[in-house]
Specification:
The chain is an alpha/beta fold. The chain contains 16 helices and 15 strands. The protein binds zinc ion.
Length: 438
């Protein structure tokens, strides 16, 4: 049988079924979708393709889903290190955005971020920013799938004059992408402290009418919770619950200061939490209780946040940090298990976006959004546990191939840093010799 592409993987981590590493498997792609998954020996008998990619020392897995980005902020990366959050916003970020904000800035910034993400193994990002149509253009130009946001924020910007304008533009954005296989839309009230009750209620209504997720920063800082208690007499999640926003479409970004009652409400409602550990650490926001969210059964995704507060859009690195931080915060090294974290970085994000019927795992019939991570380098050898080493030893530098809908959007040739000629013997054979004695 003829196939568009056959990927022959040493290891396949499909994410569904969970806790699974398959060896010597092939993923067959036709028409942008996964047509078959079968042992390579059988695939060679059954399928022909002009595009066979043989990856003898790589893990193939679903593309990473970045659940929270501000892609255009790649252009203002590097501004204001070591400032307090309010100083950073007031003296660096907001003035820079004020000066640059336009459709072109967002499109070109998103293109840069899209390329950085593509090279890092991200196949889909959920973006929140002004000029979302321009963000979608830049991200699509970079080859990514994306969910862009109808942003609602309580002050005027170059994109909108105020709440009415933001809500109208957001609704138009959502209608525009209703049947778009590559670009979805969310409604994105920026945060509980920047959006009024009335506008939050209207966001809830838009989310309900169109069935789109609500992409919002919540419980990011201790100050936000204090402010909410002072102004409304309610914690942010309780306020959002009363306004009709806490349901299975909620994506609560950060959730650093979520307490047990917040976690319980989100678990009951089937809401999702998006964890952005680098941003939380760099801005000293605190430590999100990731293990508690996972234990309560809340769907978890991972996000990089924008390049101004991270400053790298490295989902593998972010997931590694999330796992280690969760263990330390919970005081429990058995928390945030490898497969839970790999799921959070892929299917968890897809689920939060209500896109999990199409992306987030390697399953027959799904979109062929896939990546390959090469474990042949000395930094990943010997391979004793491909899943654990994918999370803890590999990094974005080991990502070699990235496909979206079966199209190769990024390919990297890894340089051989320690060739046999240089050191007179194979470093991998040294690693394997000792591995064999175990
Ligand atoms: Zn953010």
């Amino acid at each position: 049988m003829q196939a568009d592409t056959v990927i022959e993987a040493r290891w396949l981590i499909p994410v569904v079924p969970k806790n699974t590493v398959l060896e010597h498997m092939s993923v067959v792609i036709s028409g942008g979708r996964i047509a078959d998954i079968l042992p390579t020996a059988q695939a060679r008998l059954r399928y022909q393709s002009d595009d066979t990619v043989t990856l003898p020392e790589s893990v193939v897995m679903p593309g990473l889903v970045n659940l929270h980005s501000h892609a255009a902020m790649n252009i203002i990366r590097g501004l204001g290190a070591d400032l307090s959050l309010m100083d950073w916003l007031n003296t660096k970020i907001w003035p820079a955005e004020g000066k640059l904000m336009s459709a072109d800035y967002v499109r070109e910034g998103s293109l840069l971020a899209g390329r950085e993400m593509a090279m890092s193994g991200v196949t889909c990002t959920s973006d929140q920013y002004f000029f979302p149509e321009s963000a979608a253009e830049g991200l699509r130009e970079a080859g990514l799938r994306c969910a862009v946001s109808g942003l609602v924020i309580g002050f005027p910007s170059a994109w909108g004059s105020g709440d009415e304008d933001y809500l109208a533009k957001s609704e138009a954005l959502i209608r525009n992408h209703e049947n778009d296989p590559f670009v979805h839309a969310t409604i994105a009230p920026h945060a509980p402290y920047t959006v009024s009750d009335e506008s939050l209620r209207r966001c809830a209504d838009i989310s309900e009418r169109f069935g789109v997720p609500v992409h919002i920063h919540v419980n990011e800082t201790a100050g936000e919770v204090e402010g909410s208690l002072k102004t409304y007499g309610l914690r942010p999640i309780e306020r959002l619950t009363r306004l009709g926003l806490v349901n299975d479409r909620l994506i609560a970004v950060h959730s650093v200061h979520a307490d047990a009652s917040d976690i319980d409400k989100m678990a009951q409602a089937g809401s999702s939490m998006c964890h952005c550990p680098s941003s939380n650490l760099k801005l000293a926001s605190g430590f999100a209780p990731l293990a508690a969210f996972m234990k309560a059964g809340v769907n978890v995704g991972i996000g990089t946040d924008g390049a101004a507060s991270n400053d790298k859009l490295d989902m593998l690195g972010e997931t590694r940090l999330a796992a280690m931080l969760a263990k330390a915060v919970a005081g429990d090294s058995t928390a945030a298990k490898v497969f839970d974290m790999l799921e959070a970085a892929t299917l968890g994000g897809a689920r939060a976006l209500h896109w999990d019927q199409e992306i987030g795992s390697v399953e027959t019939g799904k979109q062929a959004d896939l990546i390959a991570v090469d474990l042949s380098g000395v930094e990943c050898q010997p391979v004793q546990d491909p899943a654990a080493q994918l999370l803890y030893s590999a990094g974005r530098e080991n990502v070699t191939h990235v496909w979206v809908a079966g199209q190769l959007i990024a390919e990297k040739i890894l340089s051989v840093r320690y060739s046999e000629e240089n050191c007179g013997f194979s470093l991998n054979s040294v690693a394997k010799k000792w591995q064999n004695m175990l």
